[in-house]
Amino acid sequence: MLSPHWGNCGRSLRRFYEITPAFTRIEVSYAGEAHGSAPLAVHRYVRLVESNELAPPNAARRSVVLSSGVELSVIDNERNEASRAWLLVHGLSSNARLWDGVLRRLTAEGDRVIAVDQRGHGHSRSSPNGYEMEIVADDLAELAKSLDTAQLFLVGQSWGGNVVLECSARHAGLASGVVGVDGGFIRLKDHYPEWEACWEELAPPVLEGVPLQQIEQWLAQSAADWPEEGRRGTLANFIVREDGTISPRLSRNDHHDVLAGLWRHEPADALSRTTAPVRFFVADSGDTNRRAQRRSAIDALVAQGGGRVDAVWFEGAHHDVHAQRPDDVTAALLEFASHHS
Predict the structure, then answer these.
(1) φ, ψ (nearest 5 deg) of residue 117
(2) Adjacency order of strands within the sheet including 246-248
(3) pTM for the whole thing?
């Protein structure tokens, strides 16, 4: 999900991971719901904040009902004959449409590509049985097993990077390779030993009732170097009410539970149980202190994994580098796949 420019923010985790949701610098007077409380108002949603279609031109959106009863919405290019497939997984409070640019480019290579809205996100339904890492990882495994392809690469961004790593750990032999795009290495307990402090710091801003126009203007400035499809993908995180204001697709309660599942996740443990090759794509925004902190953590995981784990750094990149620089990310994915085919 698009993260704000942190300015003089001294909170170490926000600068280290940039996983908090978008638009925290927008001033909002609307007092929305708090976790565990009832919403202050009920609104009728009448249209979607997306591009003209629910999927990019070279793919179709469809629903997949898992054995758990959870219904996931996926964007599928339907290249069923392809021998190589990619399952693209978004981050916290994001959605599948941020992968549009990468999906389009991988499709041009003749590959099968599916981008999924994880439970509670995008067009996928919320689930009463939670968001623990093993639960969402098993969602992906069931979806992946239905693809029936010779080679499968799991690619996840931010929280999604941790999810695909856990998926590979729990389902040996499922993936030919795993890529964490500025994720997979996130360990929140390094910065927040106590969950309450983590939620206090990383709870999402209240965006209920913010005018869509304000969001669009902010996005045009903060993501000016992004392709238009990347900005459209970010707007797909919201639905628009009849009065022209927005509401996040991911509820605040679900955001709380997803973040709690991520806080409890141990990447080093997942990596120790993973037999597939792993590569981390690390977005380097240019912040020297943040780079040093991240390099230390990532280098430790690379050393732990031996020759099957490595990292590639993207200089001048945003946390949502897959939406910002789809050409570079696609080229790096294809290079990774060429070494593990």
Answers:
(1) -85, 115
(2) 45-48, 238-241, 246-248
(3) 0.87
How many residues are recorded in the chain? 341
Contact between 150 and 173 under an 8 Å Cβ cutoff? The reply is no
Rounded Cα distance between 40 and 30, Å, is 10
Structure tokens at 157: 């961004």
pLDDT at 55: 75
Closest Cα to residue 162, out of 182, 144, 177, 145?
182
Q: Identify whether the C-beta of residue 174 lies closer than 8 Å to the C-beta of residue 152.
A: yes
3-state SS, residue 135: helix
Sign of CA dihedral 8, 236, 267, 297: negative
- What are the 10-residue block averages of pLDDT along the chain, 341 residues in total? 33 39 33 38 36 71 95 96 97 98 97 98 92 98 94 99 99 98 97 97 96 95 95 95 94 97 98 98 91 93 96 96 98 97 80
Q: What is the pLDDT of residue 6?
A: 25
Looking at residue 189, the DSSP 8-state letter turns out to be G
- What is the arrangement of strands in the sheet containing 112-117, beginning at the earlier edge strand? 60-65, 71-76, 112-117, 84-89, 151-157, 177-181, 278-284, 309-315
Structural domains of the chain ordered from first start:
23-338 (3.40.50.1820)
